[in-house]
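Entry: TRAP transporter small permease protein
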Amino acid sequence: MSARRPLLAALTALADRIDRLTGAVFRVAAWGALAVVLIQLAVVLARYGLGLGAPWLQESAVYAHAALFLLAAAGTLARDGHVRVDLFYAGASPRRKAVVDAAGTVLFLLPVAAALLWLSLPYVGRSWAILERSREASGLPLVFLLKSLIPAFAVLLMVQGVAQLLRALAVLAGDAPAAAAATE
């Protein structure tokens, strides 16, 4: 038992570092919500108040919205904020929750995120190769950057999935602090 303790502590420390990373990205991405509101307000004021159309401004709202959701997903996972079917989870013991979390991570989260990463790389690569821009003449010339959020999303989810898996394994190994951290 004592030989496992340092390993569990190291794995939990790694999970904590991952949580800090995805938490930092989450906090930055959360400002995207304010950006979406302010940009959309500017679009409405420009269009209906001044009679001006601004495709670049409308696209800015879409970009901010995409960045918000794609970059905040891993932080939301870390905070246990994603919707799940509580059929197997509600009222379950920490050990049973750890089994569900580990199984869900290994069977669903990691394979789906890995597939998304793998399938998005050629798509994003082609966009970068031509420095893809908006179809609108006055749109943003940054479509390739927007598409780059897709693999970033997949990587962040996989990294956070590893943290969730490490915590679940620590709980299954009998580490009480990991159980407390997993339920916060």
